[in-house]
Amino acid sequence: MGQMTTLSVKVLRKRREATDIVSLELGRADSGMLPAFSAGSHIDVHIGPDLIRQYSLCNHPEERHRYLIGVLRDPASRGGSVAIHDTIQEGDLIEISTPKNHFPLVRARRSLLFAGGIGITPMLCMAERLAHTGADFEMHYCARSEDRIAFRDRIAASDFARQTHYHFDDGDEEQKLDLAYLLDVPDHSTHLYVCGPTGFIDHVCKMAKDCGWRSENVHYEYFGAPALDTSGDTAFDVEIASTGEIITIPPGQAVTNILKKRGIDIDVACQRGVCGTCVTRVLDGTPEHRDHYLTAEEKLQNDQFTPCCSRARGKMLILDL
After folding, report:
1. pTM over 0.90
2. How high is the mean pLDDT of the chain?
3. How far apart are CA 4 and CA 278, in angstroms?
4. Taking the CB of residue 150, how many other CB atoms lie within 10 A of it?
């Protein structure tokens, strides 16, 4: 497979936005225009050798002179967020991908945006777009405490300040997020968007399902995934459809890593099944889906999987490679 297209950009500004959150403003060194993007888009940031992380674009989607991302220092960081906080500085040149969008806005009568912590980043871009078009929406921003609210000055000065509601874990009960109230009556003309920690997304999605919301009206994007228990893994074979070559995938080893050793490159980024970069077509066999990218309906079709983390339920998968 071909290599991902990258752009060289300059860190124009680095700013502390909240406790453990910084923003990076990125632009072309020659001050030229950047590729267009839509609300919900993200970029891959090449932080170091074999270290690529995905960050949502959180500026207005009609801007072409800059990209803005927000980065949380993750205590469980595998190196990416710590490097951005401690190593990358204003003036540095870094490589990024062109924008990709797996979390697009859908035209709807009304939209509800739910952000947990750093999950505010794609929601800001969506709020900018919805406000710009005069759409009916609300944004609910949840954080552990007030000092962890990022981009607060920007939101206060925005056209959507009145549609934004803050909820703090350490605050009074009356200001906490009341999902049961907000989602009590399903509305097929309203779409929900959720981003944040895995537990937050799962909680909102479960509440929506329990209240009777249709799955097609609930949209979400994971930033990370919990560590996988690979202790029960068994070996299986992968057949490369174009050549008939059969390659054994040992327990505890990613399909992408084993194929790479045999000269078969699949583009990867997150390596945890959240970004969709490595999605590969399955021609035969049943995948064991371990990703947080494919929808439940897509997983049931068993015609694609994420080889960075997913495996096979049987002895063989035939891949369209």
Report:
1. no
2. 92
3. 11
4. 27
